Amino acid sequence: MLTLLLIFFPLASSLLLLLARPQQAKQWALAASIIELVVSLVVAFQFDKNYAALQFSFNTPWIASLGLNLSVGIDGISLLLVLLTTILVPFIIYSSFATDYKRPSIFYGLILMMQMALVGVFVSMDGLLFYIFWELALIPIYFICLIWGGENRGQITFKFFVYTLAGSLFMLVALVYLYFKTPGSHSFDIQALYEAGRALPVIEQGWIFWAMFVAFAIKMPVFPFHTWQPDTYTTAPAQGTMLLSGIMLKMGIYGLIRWLVPLVPAGVQEWGYTAIILSVIGIIYASCIAIVQKDIKRLIAYSSIAHVGLISAGLLTLNKIGMQGAMVQMISHGIIVFALFYIVDIIFQRTKTHALSELGGIKNAAPVFATIFTVVMLGSVALPLTSGFVGEFLLINSLIQYKLIVGSVAGLTMILGAVYMLRTFQKSMSGETNSLTKTFADLTQHEKRVLYPIVALIILLGIYPDPVLSISESAVNNLLTLFSDSITSLK
Amino acid sequence: MNSLYVICGLGIAALIAEILNMRKRLTAFLIIGLAAAAILVVFDWGTNAAYFSNMVVFDKFSLAFIALISVVSVAWLWMCGEYFKDQHQTDKSALVLFAIAGAAVMVAFNNMAMLFLGIEILSIALYTLAGSRKGSLFSNEASFKYFLMGSFATGFLLLGIALVYGATGSFQLDIISDFIQIHKEGMPTFFYAGIILMFIGLAFKISAVPFHFWAPDVYSGSPTSITAFMSTVVKIAAVGAFYKIFSFAFGHIESSWLLMIQVVCVLTLLVANITAVYQVDVKRLLAYSSVGHVGYILLGFLADPIASSPVVFYYLVAYAVSSLIAFAILIIVERENKSVSIESFNGLYKRNPFLSITMAIALLSLAGIPPLPGFFGKYLVFALAIEHGFTGFVIVAVVTSLIGVYYYFRIMIAMFLKEPAGTIINLSGSENSFAALLIGITMITGLFPDLLISLLR
């Protein structure tokens, strides 16, 4: 029942928000997201991490003639992502307090609706239900970007919408195809789909692999499906970008873990290498573009492609280190990218520009701000003792075990990442102040209340990543056993 | 049968109202009467009553369609109250009611003569209604074009009926079906010629490509209220008639003869959706979109000609609800802006947020986004098609629904992004409650599709 509460509480509060007075909408939204956080923490404390199977599960038929069950449950992998969502959303809402959005009840209602869809994606254990939440997540974010976005948003958000919808429709076809391969009176239940998928011949598994991988790859995005991403991230309002990069992107990675690897193991075995190569190309390509970016928001958008490429590559090596690395890195990337985009937003609010060339010397005007930026940046370039390091280390380690050459190329991300991030720091923070940055005010109380906890989390997870690793460990083990079993039975 | 009596009676009552000078409350009276007709269906449910030596049969299929037609008509009358407010109120009301009666016959027939009768009752009333904006040249053109094309199509249909009769010796659907099953190998060639002719005749009526070219002109020339009527009530009746004849009577013909329907289905999907992209006026855009949706319905029919009636029915409900909303808002925008171009939707969000959100829900449903009914309609069609090995068709349908997203979102972008094309729109209480009610129905059909699907299963 707690799982259902986690899904439907944000929905109910988003609808109630429409009744609230517009001036109070943000406070109510924050309150709702904090209650949601508390519920998720209750779930986390009751969660038994030594137990690999689903917990807090709930299953009831919803639309019998479609084979759709309202089947939800939480295991270690789900729990981490649910926590990421419930932790980030209050911060995202709170970070918007300094900005006055028009029609705030609709704006915050959409954010909460987005939260509902995201939690739904992470806990669905029914193929069609997963798909419904997956699509549902697209609607609020589309409108957030369309109504409150920046320049040229009509075309850009449209491209974003069609791109992601195209991917997911093919995923739907694949899911329905598998549905009719399930024995008896067909079912979308995840275990039934797993069995149906594994029983398919290798060639068909390959087709399914691509139909689903493309959907996930577009969401993440992996090269060459990334073209919607930089524009959308740039044009979206700050909170929209945070939702997109902080949480929504993890839907794609989660999809890989839950709905691809165990579903068509032979397909993954067959095509995984190709997918890894694509991801690694993405890392290098996006890093190189990030190095020459002039727009700071765009730069971080590209850096996000690079980081996510590493996660997907490490994940597809299908060894335990890679999987666990992906889990940590998902959490870490979510937190860091949120902080980075918030910092960009702060810079934009004060200087009204995203152009690196117009910034400089902020360090002199706002030392606290510059210090915070330094920590977050170090997290992003994966310096030891930050959360970024744990994830990237594990991921690169797994890639080196997989194939030395792939691992070494992917490892360049650490160097390239340092290049573009340090360049950003140098161009914006160091140097002489100019007319724009001379009056750059330091962090306000409100901004500190957002950034201090986030920075604390970055360092805490870097020093002591064990909670994250131990939560997901048994679920990951379970998944890998499933995978290797089906591969051996195939041989 | 009772509902049919009520509908005809209402038509006559509308004529009498003119004599007795009772125009004021006429529309309200008709709404209540039609609602009663819909409720009467419940009492006939499951009886399979047949009348006039089996010429009309009220099986579950017919009753479900009659109920749908009545309910949609109620909603339509509610939203088109304005249209009736002139000196021809009673004439128009009577024509509409007779058209609805024709529609009911078209889904309840068990005899091809009744099919013909139903189509004619519906069409003759519609020819007049299409031309009911007397002063407008376009309306006259629409009426004339519709009349010519309609009679042309009826000619095909009649010749087809004659040939099928010649081959099977009966007008009755069940007897034809039995005859085909017994003589599967030995059907004469002219029987299949008859089927082709009937298909062409009905393809005109459901406006499937390449027999659709009249539709956009007629739709855009007619008064918007009548366009809404044509693309909901009339479309439901035409699809019901098509389904009934091709499933109940010809369901067992050699599947190779379905090839022509397959070609028409793919053409409909592609041509209608691609052409819709180029439209600059919302009325024409919705006309092409309604042609496009016929393609998905045909795909559902093709996947399983015998047992796809729940899918077809659900798809029609989903389509009708969303179209009603879209047209209701188009009527309001037309009233405010005197234009139906996409530009007149510009900035609707700033002019009236509730209106634009309602429209957005309708468009998202038409585009097939979960958890709205349009999604489940498409999903059911796709699932049925994949189950029966039509995966290639599904790929085409997926691509065309993406194209669909493109043109529906043009309206969406205009509403939410552009600068307002007029002043703030204030809605009457009736209009607000209408929109809220339809949103409610949309949500219920979307979240609990089983309620409808299980009716015909």
Which range best describes the helical content of chain A: under 10%, 10-25%, 25-40%, 40-55%, 55-70% or over 70%? over 70%
Biggest β-sheet description of chain A: 2 strands, antiparallel
The biggest sheet of chain B, with number of strands, parallel, antiparallel or mixed sense and barrel status, is: 2 strands, antiparallel
Structural classification of chain B: mainly alpha
Side by side, the strands of the main sheet of chain A go 1-2
Quick structural summary:
Chain A has 491 residues and is mostly helical. Chain A contains 20 helices and 2 strands. Chain A has a domain at 264-491.
What does this structure look like?
The complex is a heterodimer of chains A (491) and B (457). Chain A is mostly helical and 491 residues long. Chain A has helices at residues 2-17, 25-46, 76-95, 104-123, 127-136, 138-148, 153-179, 190-199, 202-219, 229-235, 238-259, 265-291, 296-316, 320-351, 362-365, 367-380, 387-402, 404-428, 445-463, 466-490; strands at 55-63, 68-74. Chain A has a domain at 264-491. In chain A, strands 1-2 form a two-stranded antiparallel sheet. Chain A is globular and about 70 Å long. The mean pLDDT of chain A is 88. By secondary structure, chain B is mostly helical. Chain B has two domains: 1-253, no CATH class; 259-457, no CATH class. Chain B is built from 20 helices and two strands. A two-stranded antiparallel ribbon of chain B has the order 1-2. In chain B, α10 (214-221) crosses α13 and α14 runs antiparallel to α17 (373-387). The two termini of chain B are 22 Å apart. The mean pLDDT of chain B is 90. Classes of the chains: A mainly alpha (491), B mainly alpha (457). Chain A binds chain B through residues 63-66, 103, 106, 128, 131-132, 135-136, 138-139, 143, 146-147, 153-154, 158, 161-162, 165-166, 169-170, 172-173, 176-177, 179-180, and chain B through 310, 349, 353, 360, 364, 369-371, 375-376, 379-380, 382-383, 386-387, 391, 394-395, 398, 401-402, 405-406, 409, 412-413, 416-417, 448-450, 453-454, 457.
